[in-house]
Design goal:
Elements lengths: L1 E2 L5 E2 L4 E6 L15 E7 L8 H11 L8 E6 L5 H20 L12 H19 L9
Antiparallel strand pairs: 1-2, 3-4, 4-5
Helix pairs in contact: 1-2
């Protein structure tokens, strides 16, 4: 069980791992080893995610989520598959953690009377300054 938040935990069996050839750095055996990892998480089928969390995850994942609700993360930053696997898991967990936080709704507020007055005075000063930029008369 992978603990995401105190209320959300996903099973390791819900995450598929596929090792693929990495386009990143490597040595002499770069064309023989599969050091990149591709993680596939079926978010739509996951019972631990509520519908609201799934919708936020869908928005956050963007192109990384397929039409079927599968989040696909490819990690190939490192040369070792162990480190790439850890990196991919960390990225997936971070993405789900971010989706689990509900957005804070903005409370509309009104400006104070003093703030309105300061804005009015500032506009008045600016208008006067622009008015004084008029043409120079030929009177000597």
């Amino acid at each position: 069980m992978i603990r995401i938040t105190p209320s959300i935990g996903i099973k390791e069996s819900e995450i598929e791992e596929h090792f693929i050839r990495s386009p990143g750095p490597g040595g002499q055996k770069v064309n023989k080893t599969e050091s990149a990892v591709q993680l596939r998480f079926h978010a739509r089928a996951c019972p631990a995610l509520s519908h609201a969390v799934f919708l936020r995850l869908k928005a956050l994942a963007g192109r990384r989520m397929t039409r079927d609700g599968v989040v696909v993360i490819t990690a190939n930053r490192f040369r070792s598959w162990v480190r790439n696997r850890r990196d991919g898991m960390d990225r997936l967990i971070g993405l789900i953690r971010k989706a689990a936080v509900p957005p804070v709704h903005r409370r509309p507020t009104r400006p104070t009377k003093a703030a309105r007055q300061r804005r009015h005075d500032s506009k008045h000063r600016r208008g006067r300054l622009k008015k004084e930029r008029g043409k120079v008369s030929a009177v000597d």
